[in-house]
Write a structure and sequence with these properties.
12 strands; nine-stranded mixed β-sheet; 5 helices; 322 residues
Amino acid sequence: MKNVRNSRTAPSGDDSELTYSELNFAAASQNSTIHTSAEPETTYAQIAVRSQSAQPNAGSEVAPGKDQRQQETAGGTNSKKSRCLGLVALLIIISLFAIIIGLTVYVLQLTQDFSEAKKEQRTLRERGDWLNASLANSVRNLTEMSGRFQNISETLSQSRQKAISLCATLRNMSDSLCPSGWKLHNHSCYRFSIATENWDTAKRECESLNSHLLIINTDQEQNFVIQSMPEKNQQYLIGLTDREREGNWEWVDGTPVSQSDSHWLNNQPDNANNEDCGTFSKEYRGRTFGFNDVRCNRVFHFICEKPAPSGIGAADFEKYCP
């Protein structure tokens, strides 16, 4: 005899159900006598599992319900959102990758620029060190040159003192070439008389001193005579005459002098009162020196001239002496 003692259904998490059934079976004796003794009955348990999802209704396969359509619509919307999110994520990744590449290139450029800047700084430092060394060397050379220049300056000063002393000695030697009372100029000795004589007497006195009355050949010689004259307002007889032939003036050595010579004073010679001898003087009430004709018997100071003895002449050293 079968006896259903208990059955229960346990709900699952999804649409399927789990059904538990407990069945009790009693064994009958041969005479089908029901024992009421205390013999235990044999109990069998059977578990049946039924899943509603595994066995859907036929009607649901043919026409899906409203819930299923909502689920499909929600699934399509979710798929589109997923694709959009994927594209956004891809764009973000590409942007990040591009930013990373840009930053990497920028960092590399900065590194290169920094390296070049360091190299240029090192070059500038080396060049600065070289310039400093050159400057120090130039300063050292300048100091040495300054010392040498000072030594040269001192040497030149000493040489100048020696030159002055030598020139003084040479002047004394040149003056000694002429007799006492005579002045040396350009290898000639000149004597300015203290006494006064007429032209003939003055000529003879100069000849007695192995000289002759003054003969002026150059402007330089005339300037020397002007500077050496003891009395600038006096007339001095010189070796100039026209006794041999009137109007033909000549020196005592026979050298002719024309009346148009620039050394004559203004309006001279004028041959007033038979004037046949020449003097050297300053123009009356003027500053010009030159020749003038006078009578030969008049007495004046006179100038004698003769060659200086061979030796050192003043012209040889005066241009080199201070």
